[in-house]
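Reposting from the mailing list since nobody answered there.

I have sequence plus structure tokens for a pair of proteins and want to know whether others read the tokens the same way I do. The first protein:
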Amino acid sequence: MKFGHFDDAQREYVITTPLTPYPWINYLGNEKFFSLISNTAGGYAFYTDARLRRLTRYRYNDIPLDYNGRYFYINDNGTVWNPGFKPMNTALDSYECHHGFGYTRFLSSKNGLKADTLYMVPNGENCEVEQLTLTNESLETKKISVT
């Protein structure tokens, strides 16, 4: 089964299904702050030491479950989903995970609502930036909440 492909022009690996056999991880980081993110938005962040200075929770013995991470819960008229698929496991109309050098981007959609989610660790900063952009591509008015 094919799970994705290399995009040489963008210098990224594009994962086209969240149903990979194991989490496919991308490493984000700079001199002191580091983050690992999977193709379903699982992972963790740490400052200088992965064992003693972990900022978010992640258990490797949960693999392949991959349920601890950074999630946006989108409630679209009662349909709750996450752009990275887990932990809701709501079937998505479209899904792509782009693992690039220093960033991961999810492009997904459900019921005419498109989500573009970017995760990155800026150079020289001790933080992770998470950006969510929602676009209503349907003709209907939507009542949306995000947590």
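The second protein, same order (residues first, tokens after):
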Amino acid sequence: MRTIRILEHITLDGVIQHENNENFTYGNWTLPFRSPAGLEAVVEAQGSSFDLLLGRHTYDLWSEYWPTAGDTPIANSLNAATKYVATHRPDGLDWGPAADLGPDIIDGIRNLKSTDGPDLIVWGSSTLTPMLLAQGLADEVVLLVYPVFLGRGKRFFSDSVDPCELAFVNTKVTSTGVLVNTYRNVGSLRIE
């Protein structure tokens, strides 16, 4: 059985959005805080062998960037990983190796999780991440928390997400103030 690990760059107020558009102009908010220690933490969190579990929007954005990002360890590992994509339009998955999860995304993820293979890493999906936690499919959450408030942008979770509980595993701090917090999914929120 595979482990599903969610990795996310996040502000103190929960924003995860990185792409600029007409309503969001802060797309490069992580750049001033990047460091060799932060990159090392990302590489460690991903592991040496992994596949990717991505929403269609993240897949499309990454397929424009990573194939031409150059010969770096992170680019090479992302390009080599099999990309499993949550999409209702399976055409155009040219950044491979890639496969869609089928018409029932949750069933597709359950079936994939039950197979043997490397860990499944989830980056960036504000739609896929809540589904994984709500269905109890995510095993770990790694949050790279930046010392920034943005006040607007896509959030890690919306108000419609079911409450859940995470157990703290560990934390690391980079020289630029980024906290790399790792949590294990425990399940439903306990209220006493």
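Reply #1 (J.P.):
I read it the same way you do. The two ends are 33 Å apart (CA to CA).
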